[in-house]
Amino acid sequence: MNGYAQLFPVVMKIILPDLTTETIVGEPLCISRILDRLRFIPSEVIVSRNGKLVPEDAVAGDDDEIRIIKIAHGG
Fold it and tell me: Which of 6, 4, 40 is nearest to 66 (CA)?
């Protein structure tokens, strides 16, 4: 982390598929890194940031609300 991030860490609220929440404090992160950190398989979920769908390479930052939505599929 750089000096600024240590003094003013980024706080992100993550809403999981079961509607429980996690908070990540630190630096801005790519959505793919958040999914990896929380052990989600990217092809099995979609992600919204502040209510808008975002790709895996989008960056989440301070005060962002990230929602992970499990994709339901079948035959």
Answer: 40
- Write the pLDDT tens digit of every residue in 21-40: 999 999 999 999 999 999 99
Domain that holds residue 42: 3-70
Average predicted confidence (pLDDT) for the chain: 90
What strands, in cross-sheet order, belong to the sheet with 21-26? 21-26, 10-15, 65-70, 45-49, 52-54
Domains: count for the chain: 1
72, two tokens:
């339901």
Q: For the domain that residue 57 is a member of, what is the CATH number? A: 3.10.20.30
The pLDDT of residue 70: 96
Residue 75, in any domain of the structure: no
Largest Cα–Cα distance in the chain? Answer: 52
The total of other beta-carbon atoms located within 10 Å of residue 59's CB is 14
